[in-house]
Design goal:
Bound molecules: S-adenosylmethionine
Radius of gyration: 19 Å
Number of strands: 8
Distance between the termini: 38 Å
CATH architecture of the domain at 6-146 and 175-204 and 254-263: 3-Layer(aba) Sandwich
CATH class of the domain at 6-146 and 175-204 and 254-263: Alpha Beta
Length: 267
């Protein structure tokens, strides 16, 4: 078990799909458009959201290797969307076995909603292993620290700051980069001579979006767990945000970055 429930991944998937940056996705698609078959490794695949989001924009023939350390999520990551797409799953702990996941004939490595969980050291290793193999890398939906509530509440800043402290705790890869992950990865790819195309993939949530209530509960739970803000202040904040939601007048933007990194001269 990774702590990411099937229910949570299922609920966020349509929001993620809508938020994906279309220009970045199109750049990925162009880079393999002439290939007779696209060979993709999706790291930390969960239940296969990236496969479902991308299979329609890649060449018709595709082979996917889906990698995760959570067997119950991996079990949901099948079947293939059609007969031209082959899908294999493999259980791997990416803390130890990243290199195994990347070995073999691969055109593209993908990840979504993952990089903010990992440490600076692990990202450096990822960039090195991708670059020595001259692979392309597409990372979608990396949280980037931008949170905007409308209307604002005086406690928003304290709750979001606590959430960010929680984001930086160790998720198994060492101290997580959290909101700094995408910028760090992009900088490292540029340093090894890769070209990077990037764009925002924010969740823009209105009062009718169930995910907004879940995010309010998630911010409050993270703030309570990490400490530093009085529980009464957290409860008061959550109650005010829930009443605004009940009155159909709360909006929330959660910032994400999508990027596509590729060896220069290889598109
Ligand atoms: C937020 S989920 C994203 C899942 C999927 N990419 C998506 O967009 O729905 C993070 C994923 O990272 C996986 N994960 C976390 N630590 C891992 C590790 N050490 N090795 C492999 N996968 C890991 C979790 O099991 C989970 O599927």
């Amino acid at each position: 078990m990774s702590g990411f429930s099937i229910e949570w991944l299922t609920r966020r998937e349509p929001y993620d799909r809508r938020a994906r940056n279309t220009a970045v996705l199109a750049a990925v698609a162009r880079s393999v458009a002439t290939y007779p078959s696209a060979r993709v490794v999706d790291i930390a695949c969960g239940t296969g959201a990236t496969l479902r989001a991308m299979s329609g924009v890649l060449p018709q023939r595709q082979s996917w290797l889906l990698v995760d350390n959570d067997l119950s999520l991996l079990a949901r990551a099948q079947p293939a969307p059609n007969a031209d797409v082959t899908v294999r799953t493999t259980p791997l702990d990416l803390v130890h076995d990243l290199e195994t996941a990347l070995d073999g004939p691969v055109d593209l490595v993908t990840a979504s909603a993952f990089l903010d969980l990992v440490s600076a050291e692990w990202i450096e290793r990822l960039v090195t292993e991708i670059a020595v193999r001259k692979l392309r890398f597409y990372a979608a939906l990396t949280y980037d620290g931008r949170v905007g509530f409308e209307p604002a509440d005086p406690s928003d800043a304290a709750i979001v700051a606590a959430f960010h402290r929680h984001q930086r705790t160790d998720k198994g890869f060492g101290p997580a980069l959290g909101p700094a992950a995408a910028a760090t990865a992009i900088g490292l790819f540029e340093r090894v001579g890769y070209t990077v195309e990037q764009g925002a993939s924010d969740w823009i949530l209105g009062p009718a979006d169930d995910l907004q209530m879940e995010k309010v509960a998630g911010f409050a739970a993270a703030a309570a767990e990490i400490g530093g803000v009085a529980i009464s202040a957290i409860d008061g904040w959550a109650a005010r945000r829930k009443s605004l939601l009940a009155a159909n007048s709360s909006h929330l933007r959660v910032g994400h970055i999508d990027f596509f990194a590729y060896p220069t001269g290889r598109r």
